[in-house]
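Practice problem: predict the structure.
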Amino acid sequence: MSKRETLYLVDDNDAVRHALRLFLESRNFHVQEFSSAESLLASIDTRATGLLVLDLCMQGMSGLELQAKLKASDIQLPIIFITGHGNVQDSVNALKAGAADFIEKPFDNEVLLESIRRALQQERLQREQRSVLQELTRKFERLTPREREVMKYIVNGTSNKHLAELLGVSSRTIEVHRSRIMSKMGAKSLPELVCMALSIGVIRAWSKPLCKPCTA
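Answer:
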């Protein structure tokens, strides 16, 4: 791994935490360890990236409570829960709230390592998608009010002729608007523009999403 990913390790068992830190650092991760949920909350930055390996049952704030507080603070770290006292309901609650994995102690360190790598890869993909969607939204917001109106019609399948009649303008005017919209959005075709509109919620798909966020 060319870049050292940061792992936040929270466990109130000193021996377990120390052993995990040594193992993960030997796999080229940068590890910050904490003995309690409260100590993590006191020091973590809202812009933190990486992954959180979190003990479920601890003195003071539990892992599930920490998960909820991080979510409320919009800290979007993927979380892998580790526990020696978990049950089915705990795992269901953790996964429903967005945890990447739930691993019972004792576990093979290689199992944890594979889970971490999988979660980090998924987080990278999601971060890239969020970046693409933010850029598409910025492009849409740079359109003039009339261009936004025209775009909403054309991605819903309205012909230039019909749209010109609806707006009381010439077909040539609609063609000019359409050309400017395609240029400003960076779309090379109408299907690509439709994909962009679906991605940022300008229109809604009637069934499942038709495409992944466009990268144009």
